[in-house]
Each structure stands twice: as structure tokens, then as C-alpha cells.
UniProtKB/TrEMBL annotation, chain A:
Name of the gene: pyrR
Record's keyword annotation contains ATP-binding: no
HAMAP family: PyrR
Family to which the UniProt record says this protein belongs: Belongs to the purine/pyrimidine phosphoribosyltransferase family. PyrR subfamily.
InterPro entries in alphabetical order: PRTase-like (IPR029057), PRTase_dom (IPR000836), PyrR (IPR023050), PyrR_bifunctional (IPR050137)
Biological processes, Gene Ontology terms: regulation of DNA-templated transcription
Organism, scientific name: Marmoricola endophyticus
Protein name: Bifunctional protein PyrR
Keyword Transferase applies: yes
Function: Also displays a weak uracil phosphoribosyltransferase activity which is not physiologically significant. Regulates the transcription of the pyrimidine nucleotide (pyr) operon in response to exogenous pyrimidines.
From TrEMBL, chain B:
Binding site for carbamoyl phosphate: 55-56, 105, 135, 138, 267-268
UniProt cross-references to SUPFAM superfamilies, sorted A to Z: Aspartate/ornithine carbamoyltransferase (SSF53671)
EC numbers, comma separated: 2.1.3.2
Organism of origin: Marmoricola endophyticus
Position of the signal peptide: none
Name assigned to this protein: Aspartate carbamoyltransferase
UniProt KW Ribonucleoprotein keyword: no
Subunit comment: Heterododecamer (2C3:3R2) of six catalytic PyrB chains organized as two trimers (C3), and six regulatory PyrI chains organized as three dimers (R2).
GO CC terms: cytosol
All residue ranges annotated as the Aspartate/ornithine carbamoyltransferase Asp/Orn-binding domain in the record: 159-305
Protein family membership: Belongs to the aspartate/ornithine carbamoyltransferase superfamily. ATCase family.
Length: 194, 323
């Protein structure tokens, strides 16, 4: 069976800081960060025409949908949202047991000539994003690619940087950063570090 | 750790569902401009076919190529096998050439099992049909097709009723399907003349019937099997005409099916024998879709066996697995 994705700890303690780690972003802070990212995407691209948001599963996908909803509120335009699975493009594919694939869903208009904003929860080594760039290569040729992440925790192993960052979070490599979203997780929404 | 897919019985429900879910994702590849994924780059897949086949071999070849594997086709005709080379020597040759996976079709039941367990090679073995024994990837693609049309809200096949009709005795498709569909929670009924039901069918855990007309109204899918005359060494039924009248699917019989029920056939079809042309070409028939789904399912199997450091499905084959 595929290697399990790191499960959030069981047993939700009301004092989330003890069981899940220290809370770095709570619900309100996540919302504010996503609102700011939505505005920054609009500002950078002078509007939202030709913008396509592609979330990287699992948690990048709901984040992309939330950013799109905020863009719709501000500019009254519908931005296409999709999902891009990078499993088969990972550089460590051969080092672990075969993993289950996650959904890829390219919006009907495709990505050719569009500005693709990749959306992910945590930016760490940068290897997922490299895999995403390769995966995109097989889907089409965007005019430009930008990267939005909720948390940038540093420790890059590749020359990759994010264009839009919810929160820069200095971490040490043995710490664990966990993002929980109401769409996917039972625990209280937010970002914790442990 | 051994890594083979020899029998549909090797798959637990979790394994089977993982294959089907993976196939679901891979099927969308057919709609993309570049129908290729890098997962098996640098791996070598050998199609070792000792028996004629078009659709299965092409399907495995397309699946391996779409995953960027190198494919070597080896047909027994025109090879050293026709000069008398044994299965063992063929296996040793393939091993020496560095095959990562061997997709084996053989007229002898159990040949892929021998290939996998004799210690001749380290490659993954995928059974692509052995004699009258098993054809697990066909069962997986049939289950995938069933799930697309009849899947419950959870995607499962729990409680769905599938009738498998015709030459069950000689059919590896029927055996693999019966095993897998049961694993997935479906209820299987085998419909055949008494002479074409295998000995020991009681132990398969499925219903049997001699009366197609009685079974049709209660079924969600009907799977027609070809009468395998090339494997028949005796007369199992009086005449072709009598067989098709009692066990063939024609328009009149199809009308007895429930509104949502689908008609399947693993191919190759003998139109006019087990199925009439108007049924095969009707909108109830998903026979062409089965072929399309076959590529996605075989991609899923190859990816899950070869894609990672160790296979994600089908563990160690048991000693008694050859049957």
C-alpha cells in the first residue's frame, strides 16, 4: 500500500498548542493571508484575465478555490481553478513504494498562453514545485508561471521561490509544519508547528 | 519481496480499489495533448506472448509506453521457442536482458506462476492470460467499467448483480471476474449449459444457472463470453444454432434487461454466436469502452508494481496459488 501521508495526530485537545503543536496561523490569520494573496495576484497581473489557478493536491486545491473565490469578490471575474498532481514527476518516486495518484483536473480552457498561479500549502525544499513545473510541461505551455503558498518555511534545496507568501515561517528542519483546512480536516483550521 | 500479479485472488479489496482509483486518474490522460507520463522511464517491460492476442498485447504495449517504459514484444511464433526453447531458457534470456516486468500470456495454465516463482528471474510477472486459468487485468478492467456505469455512491460494487454467460469452462476471464467481483462485493451468477460449467464451481462462491432468460431481468450487467472452440476437444453442445438460441444475447433478450443494465464482452466477439450484431452495437453495449479502459487499468497495474521502490499491490504469491 502507498506510504501514508502524515496523519494529523489523533485526540483533539481544546488546547491545540499541546497536542498539535504551537499555532502559527489561526482561522482568521489564514483567511487574511489568502485575501492578501488574492489581492497580490490581481495587482501583479493587473487583473485576473488569463489567470488560471492550479492547486497542488491535497491541500493546495482547496486553497486555490478560496483564492479564486476572493478574486471573484474583488474583481467580479471567474478565474478557472484546477488541480495538478505531481506524484509521477517526483524525484523520489523510485525511493518509496508506489504511491496512489491524486486528482489532476485541468480547467476546460487549458493553460496554453495563460498565467498559471500554482497554489500549495507549504513551500519547503522546492522539490514539489519542480515536479509541478515538469508536470505542467506535459499539459501545456503557460505564458508565465507564478507560485502562491500559504507558508514558506525555508530550507530550499532548489533555486525556487514563491511570488505570493501567506506567512514566512523560520523553522528548523526537525520541526513539523502542519496545515489543516476545514474542507479536509476534522481538527481546527490553522497552521501549527511542532 | 516478490512483485507479481498472477491471479485476481492475489488482490485484497484495498489493492483492487487502489488499482481502480489509480486507473480513474490515468484515464484522463487520454484527453490530454501529451499522452505520456514519466513514471516508468528507464524500465523495461517485456510482452511475452505464447498465444495469439491482439487487444491484450496492444493494450499492455500502449500502457507501458504511455508510462515511458521501454517495451520489447516477444511472440513465440518466429522466436527461438518455435525452435524448441523452454520457458526457463526464455526467462533466463529475458533476465539477462534486464527486463523489469514480464507480461506473460501462455496457453498453459500456471505458466506465469512458474515464471514468477521458479527463481529464474527477478522481474515482476503480470499474468496476461494463462490457459483456462486466469486473466486478472481483464477482470480489473471489467470491474473498472462496471464501476463507471454502476458504481454506488461510494464507488463500490456492493450488491450489484453481474451475470457471466457462456463458455465458463474454458474461460479465464470468467474465473478472474468471479474472484475479483466477489472481492469487490458484487453478486455473480454464472450462466452456461451444464457441460460448460467447470468442475468444482460450487467452491467459487457464486450462483450458477442454466436459464439465461430467468437471470436477465435481475441483473445489472451481463458479460457474454466467447465459445472457445480452439480449446474444445469434445462436443459440449449439439449445434451452434442451439447454443445461440439458448445462451446467445439477441435484441429480444436484451429487452428483458433492466433499464440501467449494461452489456459487456471481453472480446474477441463471434457475432451471431454468443451475441448478435444489433446487441453488440447497441447503446447498452460498453464493449468498445472496455478496450479504452483496458489501457488505463494496465497502466495502473504497471505503475503500482513498478513505479516505486516496491509494489503497492499483490504481495507474495502463496504456494498453492497455481491451482
Amino acid at each position: 500500500m502507498p506510504a501514508p501521508t502524515p496523519e494529523p495526530e489523533q485526540g483533539t485537545d481544546p488546547e491545540a498548542s499541546s497536542s498539535l503543536g504551537r499555532v502559527v496561523l489561526d482561522v482568521a490569520a489564514v483567511n487574511r493571508a489568502l485575501t492578501r494573496i488574492a489581492h497580490e495576484v490581481l495587482e501583479r497581473n493587473r487583473g485576473a484575465q488569463d489567470v488560471v489557478l492550479l492547486g497542488i493536491p491535497t491541500r493546495g486545491v482547496p486553497l486555490a478555490h478560496r483564492v479564486a473565490a476572493r478574486i471573484a469578490e474583488v474583481e467580479d471575474v471567474v478565474v478557472p481553478v484546477g488541480a495538478l498532481d505531481v506524484t509521477m514527476y517526483r524525484d523520489d518516486l523510485r525511493m518509496r513504494p508506489a504511491r496512489a495518484l491524486l486528482p489532476t483536473d485541468i480547467p476546460p480552457g487549458g493553460i496554453d498562453g495563460r498565467t498559471v498561479v500554482l497554489v500549495d500549502d507549504v513551500l519547503y525544499s522546492g522539490r514539489t514545485i519542480r515536479a509541478a513545473l515538469d508536470a505542467m510541461n506535459d499539459v501545456g505551455r503557460p505564458a508565465a508561471v507564478q507560485l502562491a503558498v500559504l507558508v514558506d518555511r525555508g530550507h530550499r534545496e532548489l533555486p525556487i521561490r514563491a511570488d505570493f507568501v501567506g506567512k514566512n515561517l523560520p523553522t528548523s528542519t526537525h520541526e513539523k509544519v502542519a496545515v489543516r483546512l476545514s474542507e479536509l480536516d476534522d481538527e481546527a483550521e490553522g497552521v501549527t508547528i511542532r | 519481496m516478490r512483485r507479481h500479479l498472477l491471479s485476481a485472488a492475489d488482490l485484497s479489496r484495498d489493492d483492487a480499489e487502489l488499482v481502480l482509483a489509480t486507473a480513474q486518474e490515468l484515464r484522463s490522460l487520454a484527453d490530454r495533448p501529451i499522452k505520456k507520463l514519466p513514471a516508468l522511464r528507464g524500465r523495461t517491460v517485456v510482452n511475452l506472448f505464447f498465444e495469439d492476442s491482439t487487444r491484450t498485447r496492444i493494450s499492455f504495449e500502449a500502457a507501458a509506453k504511455r508510462l515511458s517504459a521501454d517495451v520489447i514484444n516477444f511472440a513465440a511464433k518466429g522466436s527461438s521457442v518455435s525452435k524448441g526453447e523452454s520457458l526457463k531458457d526464455t526467462a533466463l534470456t529475458l533476465e539477462a536482458m534486464g527486463a523489469d516486468a514480464v507480461v506473460c500470456r501462455h496457453w498453459a495454465s500456471g505458466a506465469p506462476h512458474r515464471l514468477a516463482t521458479a527463481g529464474w528471474s527477478r522481474s515482476c510477472v503480470v499474468n496476461a492470460g494463462d490457459g483456462t486459468h486466469e486473466h486478472p487485468t481483464q477482470a480489473l478492467l471489467d470491474a473498472f467499467t462496471l464501476q463507471r456505469h454502476l458504481g454506488t455512491s461510494s464507488g463500490g460494487l456492493d450488491g450489484r448483480r453481474v451475470a457471466i454467460v457462456g463458455d465458463v469452462l474454458h474461460s479465464r476471464v470468467a474465473r478472474s471476474n468471479a474472484l475479483l467481483l466477489r472481492t469487490l462485493g458484487a453478486e455473480v451468477t454464472l450462466v452456461a449449459p451444464p457441460t460448460l460449467l467447470p468442475y468444482g464451481v460450487e467452491s467459487w462462491g457464486v450462483e450458477t444457472s442454466y436459464d439465461l432468460d430467468a437471470v436477465l431481468p435481475k441483473t445489472d450487467a451481463v458479460m457474454m463470453l466467447r465459445v472457445q472452440r480452439e480449446r474444445m476437444n469434445a462436443s459440449y453442445f449439439p449445434t451452434v444454432r442451439e447454443y445461440s438460441r439458448r445462451y446467445g444475447l439477441d435484441g429480444r433478450r436484451m429487452a428483458k434487461l433492466a433499464e440501467h443494465a449494461i452489456v459487456m464482452h471481453p472480446g474477441p466477439m463471434v457475432r451471431g454466436m454468443e451475441i448478435t450484431a444489433d446487441v453488440a452495437d447497441s447503446d447498452r453495449s460498453v464493449i468498445v469502452e472496455q478496450v479504452t479502459n483496458g489501457v488505463a487499468v494496465r497502466m495502473a497495474v504497471l505503475y503500482l508494481l513498478l513505479g516505486g521502490s516496491e509494489p503497492a499491490i499483490a504481495g507474495v504469491p502463496e504456494a498453492g496459488g497455481a491451482r
